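Case study 2.
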Amino acid sequence: MKKYLFIVAIFALLLVTLPAIPLIGKKPNQAPITSKLEPFKVLDADTDEVFEIEARDYVIGALLAEMPISFHEEALKAQAVAAFTYALRLKENESIMQTEELSGAHFSNDPKKYQAFFTQEEAKEFYGDEYEDSYKKAQNVVDSVLGKVILYDNAPISAAFHSISSGITESASVIWGSDISYLKPTVSEGDLDSPDYISTKVVAESDLKEILELKNKDIKLPDKPSDWLKIVDTSYSGTVTKIKAGDDEFTGNEFRALLGLRSANFEVSYADKDFTFTTKGYGHGVGMSQYGANAMAENGKTYEEILKHYYSGVQIADISVK
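Prediction:
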């Protein structure tokens, strides 16, 4: 059980560090599908070399890196389709407007900038004695949905996903400032039963003062520490959209990054020279919740029902037969 929780924690960390799927500079749904199951070109972040990988192998590696393989198969299928759609959208966008630093690749294998991905060697190291069974399960899952893609207006969507929502997923407009028709708040009741749904982080008064002053050396804080922080506004889903720290102001995501909080859906209290931050969920909260997807699967929902629940108004197509 302890090993399972550790693995889940690692996957959750990967989700939190995964940056926003590129939305700025390229209009949503700009690129119609032009490719089938062609290889992806990936920039190796360590060597700066571009290598090709078959779509099937890429999705297997992404699935192993992005979701606990112990999850229900229908949730894993949903994740595999989202992972393929994510990669395909980037590939299609690069065919329209190339990103100079990618050197002709469709995306890179840097998990700080793009979707996480395990090579077989990395998967062996991560899964250890459970590698053979885990890899076989991932292969079977991917083979059952290979070529399935999530479409909106006949184009691959920005298939955002996260570990745990607050119980209601977040709007893309709140997190990234871009209104995306299929990334709207959606009820995700299964997240409420996650063991990591609620978490707390205690920050000493002196530490918070140091953090804030490192961020802004000219910040002016009230004499009473209990007056240092004030949450000004939150979204419909509970994400902090504006918080004041003395005479400075942050978005919830900026403040979350500053303190390393698990999400931007948080409350703060002060007592005994400590600030206590209580967060709901884990990750940015946009798109498909992995825990929510697993709960839906355990309740009998198919991967298509899961995807259509979290991505509003989409269709699931099979480009491998186009």
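Confidence is low (pLDDT under 50) at residues 1-31.
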